[in-house]
């Protein structure tokens, strides 16, 4: 479903949320499997890769 601001977030939505407060997003220069990959490092040192 598409996110709608007037709809309350469910517990599952909150469990799967990624906090981007104080996070760092950079191009993943060391990742060569796919093009246009972005690395997101969160304040608690978790790393996520996103393909744009």
TrEMBL record:
Classification via SUPFAM superfamilies: PH domain-like
InterPro entries, per the entry: PH-like_dom_sf, PH_9
Matches recorded under Pfam families: PH_9
Annotated Pleckstrin homology domain residues: 2-52
Protein name: Pleckstrin homology domain-containing protein
Native organism: Cirrhinus mrigala (Mrigala)
UniProt lineage: Eukaryota, Metazoa, Chordata, Craniata, Vertebrata
């Amino acid at each position: 479903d598409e996110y709608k601001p007037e709809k309350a977030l469910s517990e599952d939505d909150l469990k799967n949320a990624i906090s981007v407060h104080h996070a760092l997003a950079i191009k993943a220069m060391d990742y060569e499997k796919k093009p246009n990959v972005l690395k997101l490092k969160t304040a608690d040192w978790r790393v996520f890769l996103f393909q744009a």
